[in-house]
Amino acid sequence: MEFIRIVLQLIVGLSLLNVWLLQNKKPTRWRGGNATTLTEEFQVYGLPVWMCYVVGFLKVGLSLVLLAGIFYPFLIKPAVIGLAVLLVGSIIMHLKIKDPLIKSFPAFLFFILCLVLIYLS
Predict the structure, then answer these.
(1) Model pTM?
(2) CB atoms within 10 A of CB 76
């Protein structure tokens, strides 16, 4: 089970870091509305730009804590609970603007993986 937990930590942590640090200015099929960047996406949701930076800071920080949890397992549960809450917020924002359900698939998938990690830790 420990191997599965570590693999899931790597998948969730590295994927979220990829989105927020490497793909943040690139268009993807998962962006809300017709947004091409993360900041545009937050504007589409009707949120202020500063909220993008707050959420980004939290997601990057919690992802790093989740990865540190590989070596310090007591960090896993607080990190995945925080990420799960933020991912629910992502799903709600997609629903708020009536995006097709497929656009919220990554957030839903990572939310489920967070729930599995809560169970495993």
Answers:
(1) 0.94
(2) 23
d(C-alpha 110, C-alpha 18), whole Å: 13
The CA-based diameter of the chain, rounded to the nearest angstrom, is: 41
Token look-up 């943040």 returns 24
Q: CB of 100 within 8 A of CB of 59?
A: no
Q: pLDDT digits over 8-40, tens only?
A: 999 999 999 999 999 999 999 999 999 999 999
Q: How far is CA 76 from the centre of its chain?
A: 15
For the chain, which residues score pLDDT lower than 50?
none
Taking the C-alpha atoms of residue 71 and residue 55, their distance in angstroms, rounded to an integer, is 25
Distance CA 75, CA 88 (A): 20
- For 106-110, the CB contacts below 8 A with 24+ separation are 106/30, 110/12, 110/15, 110/16, 110/83
- Residue 16 vs residues 9, 24, 61, 105, 109: alpha-carbon distances, Å: 11, 10, 10, 14, 12
